[in-house]
Amino acid sequence: MGVEKKDLIINGFGSSSGGSFDEVSVNGKGTVVGDIECNKYDCNGLGNVNGNVTADRVQINGKGKINGNLVGRDITVDGHSTLGGDVTYESFRISGSCSIGGMVKGERLKINGKATIGGDCETEEFVSEGIFKIGGLLNAEDIDITLYGECMAKEIGGQSIRVRQKSYGLIKIFKTLFPSRLVATVIEGDDIYLEGVRAKIVRGNNVVIGKDCEIDLVEYFEDFTNTKGSKVKEHTKL
Predict the structure, then answer these.
(1) Is 143:121 a contact under the CB 8 Å cutoff?
(2) Is residue 22 part of a domain?
(3) Three-class SS string for the chain?
(4) Which domain holds residue 34?
């Protein structure tokens, strides 16, 4: 029989060393110094970990902070959280505001709020219904983006890439004050549909340029469609 793991619960201004636990709950201004391995990690308030976290399930709320790397099967981040290192996951959902210092890598990433990723983002499925800034490459098999503000990525690559603007209906002044657009240097994929995109190069098999786009060059292998009102300076069939 294996040794039963204990729980680590920190409330208020408490602090503890890292280690191996069943469940870890850091509340208030609780601090953990060292790496954590556990089945469930729950952080609320101003919880802070000066180390790496490896867990099956991760829930970070408030202004939770992890200064090292985060590895988890199912990760949910709410509030205004900061992750200093890399994030590895199966399922990763970001609500509120989350800043990630390193790269993210996993199977499914969904952004419902605001995400800032310092490095590359490599995931099987990328779904965004919010705002994001990716310092490196966004690479995913399936990319589905609904723009609610300005989003940025250095380069974007995928099999299926869909970028659509959120419809504001009659509230046109909101769209004017907070433009919904995606800015990237290069976008490359098999099937591409774009709205509200500014890019230097778009390259794909089937490319549809929807409304409110500004593209310097479109390169396509099979089909290309340009919607009236979008600016494509040059297009060429490869």
Answers:
(1) no
(2) yes
(3) CCCCCCCEEECCCCEEEEEECCEEEECCCCEEEEEEEEEEEEECCCCEEECCEEEEEEEECCCCEECCCEEEEEEEECCEEEECCCEEEEEEEECCEEEECCCEEEEEEEECCEEEECCCEEEEEEEECCEEEEEEEEEEEEEEEEECCEEEEEEEEEEEEEEEECCCCCCHHHHHHCCCEEEEEEEEEEEEEECCEEEEEEEEEEEEECCCCEEEEEEEEEEEEECCCCEEEEEEEC
(4) 1-73
Whether 50 is covered by a domain: the verdict is yes
pLDDT tens digits for range 123-146: 999 999 999 999 999 999 999 999
pLDDT at 136: 96
The total of structural domains in the chain comes to 1
Asked if residue 18 lies in contact with residue 1, where contact means CB atoms within 8 angstroms, the answer is no
Residue 100 lies in a domain: no
pLDDT, tens digit, for every residue of 12-26?
888 899 999 999 999
Asked whether residue 20 is domain-assigned, the answer is yes
- pTM (2 d.p.): 0.92
